Amino acid sequence: MADLDPVDVREAEVQQHEVGAQALGGRQALAAGRALADDVEAVRFQQRAGRVAEPGVVVDDEYGLGHRDNLPEIAGSQKRGSSHAGNGQPHPGRRVPTVVSECTSAVITGLHHVQVAAPPGCEAEARGFYGRLLGLQEIEKPESLKARGGVWFQCGPQQLHVGVAQDFTPATKAHPALVANDLDALAERLVTAGAPVRWDPDFPRFYTDDPWGNRLELMPAASHPTPAR
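Request: output the structure for the sequence above.
Response:
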């Protein structure tokens, strides 16, 4: 069993495993020892989070995510975290409420890039569509990533990456929304090039597809956020 830091574990916080009067065999003893170590570690985690919960209970971690302890078989029918009534049944799952404090410092500060997938050998079409047709400037990929294929473009202060997927499937719902300073002129260029243009009847925007069927939204720079379609 791994070394553990000293921790104040009371009987109410970690229930001992009922193994009966008969001494455990080597394999059962090892399983019981590991299970007890897991219980101690679980209590240490809850103490760090400012609360203590019984093993086998559905708890919230510090991110507000619920986790249920999966209970392995030990010492016959008795399970880790089970009740002391002798029936070997686990505690009913119940959630320990967590109050998530408001974040006081910025964690996410912006969006660096989006990536659209494309099939192998996509580079020429990527440069033709995203580069020459949409007018995005190509940027050089890091040397260590060039062998993977694909093309990167500057898109305002952000980037758009075309990445190679061996088992490519076009994204027909999920999509990036690109901002254009002249939406009508861009739509005309796309139509002339044979690309589809689907105008939204309710908002000043349209949708098109890249050469591999990925959905793209084009919207004017002065547009307010609009519902996704």
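Residues 6-22, 56-64, 67-83 have pLDDT under 50 and may be disordered.
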